[in-house]
Write a structure and sequence with these properties.
CATH topology of the largest domain: Uridine Diphospho-n-acetylenolpyruvylglucosamine Reductase, domain 3
Bound molecules: flavin-adenine dinucleotide
Oligomer: single chain
Strand order of the largest sheet: 5-6-10-8-9
CATH class of the largest domain: Alpha Beta
Distance between the termini: 6 Å
CATH architecture of the largest domain: 2-Layer Sandwich
Helix content: 25-40%
């Protein structure tokens, strides 16, 4: 179905100024240009007609009523670190930036809960709660992302095997519907069997159902100790074969990351550092938390045994906290090292953990077939594989012709192994075509029905996930 959209006129701008105040409404090119893209590589930029930066929920309800009445598209945005074009205003209209709603409203020490506005960054929240002896366990490769963005993409990150992803750490929400109504879901409690779970429905909906204006987050106690083990292997297959055995141990690690030499070389150049044992083909980086050093070292000795049984060349725990930090920092810089290296695409397929090596094997075949190199690394503990096809020795025209067929084949393989198109980045605009091709029509139809129930006029982040 085609939707028509109204334009932002001078009168609309006046109405927006009346709602938000002149200091929170932006129309000049140099003020709004940065809101035309996110971190999705090679994405086409779309400049919104106006950017608004609310400081309270009431102004968002007024905005929604205005936009709904005039059929003006609204695109919510957090920090713009998304990798799927989710916050790109592809129909122009109003860009709703939540960056100024960035208060940590409450740390409830009795209920182990934080109540926050959506524009709080993940890094600010983690630092704040840790100062009070608590822990918010989500740790992604981009800590400047906002909590609202994390919720809307159901962000995952490194600690998912132990703590789950964003949806496992959100207890309740306040959100504004496209018709301007405010809803409150869940609360400061863990259990709830009271009707449909709208908290979980809004999480991961990529700003297409409602604007998140407040979140109730689950906290835990700060881990006493955290250590990293680094194990180089002769090949990726051996490294990945060790993972299911490690997962059978009594302690669940916080993360198990895998990587190949190609990305290690790039990050070494990017950061001007040397990674220990950097001449080997593949690596596991395992992080564990515990109550004491003894507990952790006992665990690591078992992990080391498993790694060696799977032909690891070494299994080392860097001696100093600084050396461990260096390894973790390097892991966090993979994306930036790649960005600097060459134009690339981003794929974040998830498959059952056991299928990672088969998936990577098939990806290699596809890479050969298309003559496009693909850098591979990922979260071995949870099956989320990051792939970056690289545009090297090929002109952009040839690349554009090949890349969507290559991506299609990779998604198809991922799904045939029991996986899904996106483990943590979301569908956004980038993967819409593949999602719609590969997903059961009955599922898409239910999703479209839900979208219509929330947003009859399709004004909230239209053109994302699917087209109505
Ligand atoms: C270097 C790098 C590393 C990354 N590592 C990870 C990783 O480890 N794990 C991971 O999951 N992701 C990762 N990401 C992706 C990104 O950080 C996440 O998708 C993050 O959750 C986006 O948050 P944001 O605030 O930047 O949201 P944005 O990019 O601004 O928006 C993302 C989506 O959320 C919607 N949205 C934002 N705020 C709201 C709101 N308040 N209400 C309704 N909708 C809203 C937008 O419309 C859009 O659809 C990485 C990105 C980069 C650049």
């Amino acid at each position: 179905m085609n939707y028509w959209y109204g334009k932002v006129t001078d009168q609309t701008i006046e109405e927006l100024i009346a709602i938000f105040g002149g200091d929170n409404v932006f129309t000049k090119k140099d003020e709004i240009e940065a809101y035309s893209c996110d971190e999705m590589p090679l994405a086409k930029h779309h400049i919104p007609q106006v950017v608004v930066k609310p400081i309270n929920v009431q102004s968002i309800t007024r905005l929604m009523r205005l936009a709904n009445e005039k059929r003006i598209p609204i695109t919510p945005r957090g920090a713009g670190t998304g990798l799927s074009g989710g916050c790109i205003p592809i129909y122009g209209g109003i860009l709703l930036s939540l960056e100024r709603m960035n208060k940590i409203i409450e740390i409830d020490q009795e209920n182990f809960v934080a109540v926050v506005e959506p524009g709080v960054t993940l890094s600010d929240l983690c630092n704040h709660v840790e100062q009070q002896g608590f822990y918010y366990p989500l740790h992604t490769g981009e800590m400047s992302a906002t909590i609202g963005g994390n919720i809307s993409t159901n962000a995952g990150g490194l600690n998912a095997i132990k703590y789950g992803v964003t949806r496992h750490n959100v207890l309740g929400l306040e959100a504004v519907l496209p018709n301007g109504e405010i809803i409150r879901t869940g609360g400061k409690f863990v259990k709830c069997s009271t009707g449909y779970d709208l908290t979980q429905l809004i999480i991961g909906s990529e700003g297409t159902l409602a604007v998140v204006t407040k979140a109730i987050l689950k906290l835990t106690t700060k881990p006493v100790k955290r250590e990293v083990l680094f194990a180089p292997f002769m090949n990726l297959q051996n490294a990945l074969d060790a993972v299911p055995e490690i997962m059978k141990l009594k302690i669940t690690p916080t993360s198990i990351e895998f990587m190949e030499r190609s990305i290690i070389e790039l990050v070494e150049k990017y950061q001007n550092i040397e990674i220990p044992h950097h001449q080997h083909e593949a690596y596991l980086m395992i992080t564990v938390e515990g109550e004491s050093e003894n507990e952790i070292y006992e665990y690591f000795s078992k992990v080391e045994e498993i790694c060696r049984q799977n032909e690891a060349v070494e299994a080392m725990v860097p001696g100093s906290a600084r050396a461990q930090r260096k390894l973790l920092d390097a892991r966090e810089k993979f994306f930036h090292a790649l960005q600097q290296y060459a134009p690339m695409a981003v794929i974040d397929v998830v498959v059952p953990r056991r299928e990672i090596s088969e998936f990577v094997r098939k990806v290699r075949e596809i890479s050969e077939e298309f003559q496009i190199p693909i850098i591979v690394y990922g979260h071995a503990g949870d099956g989320n594989v990051h792939l970056h096809p690289i545009c090297l020795n090929m002109n952009r025209g040839e690349w554009s012709k090949k890349i969507s067929r290559l991506m299609s084949e990779i998604y198809h393989v991922g799904i045939s192994l029991g996986g899904a198109i996106s483990g943590e980045h979301g569908i956004g605009f980038d993967k819409k075509v593949y999602f719609n091709l590969e997903t059961d029509i009955a599922l898409i139809n239910i999703m479209k029905g839900i979208k219509k129930a929330f947003d009859l006029n399709n004004i909230l982040n239209p053109g994302k996930i699917f087209d109505l």
